[in-house]
Amino acid sequence: MALSLSLSAQETSYICGTGTKTLTASASGGTAPYTYTWTSPSNVTTTGASVTAGAAGVWTWNATDANGCTATGTHTIVIEPDPTVTINATNACVGAAQTISATGVPSGYTYSWDFGSGATPATSTSASTSVSYGTTGTKTITLTISKTFTGSANGCSSTCTWTKTTTITIGQLTGGSSCS
Questions:
Q1: Cα–chain center distance at 5
Q2: Could you tell me how far CA 180 lies from the centroid of its own chain?
Q3: Cβ-contact 153, 147 below 8 angstroms
Q4: Which pLDDT value is given to residue 39?
Q5: Which domains can be identified in the chain, with CATH numbers?
Q6: According to DSSP H, which parts of the chain are helical?
Q7: Overall average pLDDT of the 36-44 stretch
Q8: Rounded to 5 degrees, what are φ and ψ at 171?
């Protein structure tokens, strides 16, 4: 009797940066018990129904039932690399507007800014925003970017999220045109 495989491992998945994903194969039909062998994209072989995947490419799994019947399935891993994000913001005087933006953000990512205490506006979801501060001191600016990736038709999805912070100093305007 031939094995009939479920689609639990017939997917495309996304891994964020240096993360990993547990892949699980599931066989049905045939005669239990089943044994499983996984082959990574670099041809490393592992046994067991589940494997921890951290390499991009096609992971192949073989299921063998108690009668020696075999079937094969695949799971494709796509890695979304860690972006190199730079926040563009400078020290400023109280009340002086500046445009705060980021470079290195891949296309399709959403932005969630927190400009810190005393900022107007305090938050934003735009790629760049004109911000001014009503108080002096060191301000922490936090940018969180995220994107949801949907793999195969089986609905496998992952949301990749990265957070970057920087600090700036907001000073009080003193005589002339400098801040202290």
A1: 30
A2: 40
A3: no
A4: 94
A5: 3-80 (2.60.40.10), 86-171 (2.60.40.10)
A6: none
A7: 94
A8: -110, 170
